[in-house]
Structure formats: C-alpha cells, structure tokens
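ok trying again, last paste got cut off:
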Amino acid sequence: MTSDDTAVLRVAGRPVGRYVTRPEVPARLSPRPCLHPVTTLAGTTVTEFGPADHLHHLGVGVAVPDVEGYNFWGGRTYVRDRGPTELDNHGTQRHTAFQLRDPDGFVEELRWIAGGRELLRERRTVAATELAPTAWALDFTFSLTNVTPAPLGFGSPATNGRPGAAYGGFFWRAPKEADAPRVFTAEGEGESAVHGERADWIALTGAGWTLVLAGATADTRRDPWFVRTAEYPGVGSSLAHRERVPLAPGDTLVRRIVTVVADGTLDGGEAAALVRKAVTR
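nice, full thing came through this time. structure:
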C-alpha cells in the first residue's frame, strides 16, 4: 500500500492495480475512486482512464448515471425527449477512510454527495487473489445505503428513454486497441448477442489479455450485462436495465463482481474454469 490517497494491490508480490481515492478530474466527470492501471501478472495494462472518446470513463469502479436525478457517471445526462444534455447535476464519491488496507486488498468507506447533501454511504471491499501463474482475480463488492429520509431511485439512460443504454453500476473500461476485442459468454458471442443479456460470466479478450467477469451473488447475477466493443471496449453490470431500482431510507443495495485478469486469450472452457475457481475461493 502507498499513501492515504492511493493503494497498490499486489499478487504474488507483483503490483497489479493502483487504486486512487481522489482522482484529479473536473466536477462534470463525476469524480470517484477508481482502479487504474490494472495489469495482468505479466504487466499488460487492461484498463483505460479518461480516454478521448469518453473522458468520464475512469478505469474500474462504480458509476451510476442517475441517482434520484443526480449524475454519478460523468458527462452528459440523458433526458427523456431531449437526449444527452449538459446539466449541472454531477455527484461525487468521496473517500472517507480505509477500514482495512493490506497488500492484497482493502475495505473502504465512501460518501456519495450531490446537490450539497449526502445521498448514499458506501462500504467497498476489494481483494486480489492469485489463480494461476498467468491469472489473478479481482473481487469487488459495493454496498450502498440510503442515508436520506426519502426513497432514492437508481436509473439509467435506458430507463429514461434510450433503448440499449442501461449502463450504470460496476464498470470496467478496457484499453482501445487496433482491433475491437472479442466478447463472449457460454451461450453467445459478439456484442449484439451478449449485450443486455444475463449470463453467469462474460469474457472480453484483446491483444494478449482476457477479462472474465462474473456476478458472485444471486442479485448480481440477475443484472444483465452492458457491453460495448465496436464503439469502445467496456463491460459493466447493469443496475437499472429496464426499470428504476428503488432504495428505501436505511436500506442497503449490495452487488459483488469477480473478474479474472489473465494473460493470453482464453477460450470458453478456460474462462469458465478460471471464473469458477475465482468465485468459489
């Protein structure tokens, strides 16, 4: 681990991820703690931070475009019957403290602030585990508690009228390469086949690397996958796919995603075997 503002995840003594609690980005990008760079055990970077195509894509983290009308995703807000619109509605995820910090993980407390008040309190647990000489797993859990006296609704551009744009929740922005990555599940292959679908796991393979994401709880597995490969490489778990998700005062929403980070391009059998090992550890 490093300073109060950063933490370095290590697997078998090798640094594999840098976690920044206070990234220096403008307010309109919805500042939030994130992991970048994340690498394979051989050192290949598998994240991107602030790319030109989407400046508000910040490595690996949690981002939600609509929490009771506030934008914790960054960039423009999709407004029904108007489309993407610049609004002064951006929220910030503020690091409060690390409850635990070890070389292989941490437990963090955060506050989600917007409109001059705290909406959510988050407990985030992140752990890195070796799976094989060429693969490790990132175990990422976030628990969001409504600390306001009224219900909060989680939404997405899809719930606000833009079909197919149900992004929001855990999100991994992968590096853009000369060729679009391959994306597949046990049931289908290609962006059009897997986007918006539920699957136990989903794999993204690029030039010498593979990511395999899996929901590690029943609630998380019910969330469909948000996938982009042609426009940019990114995969996330859709928190609000077709309908807004309500959270009553004092209630807590929990999601857990485990991601296999591997060197090389895995096939379906290899991806399934590694993700089973990662989730059942």
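cool. The radius of gyration is 17 Å. The mean pLDDT is 96.
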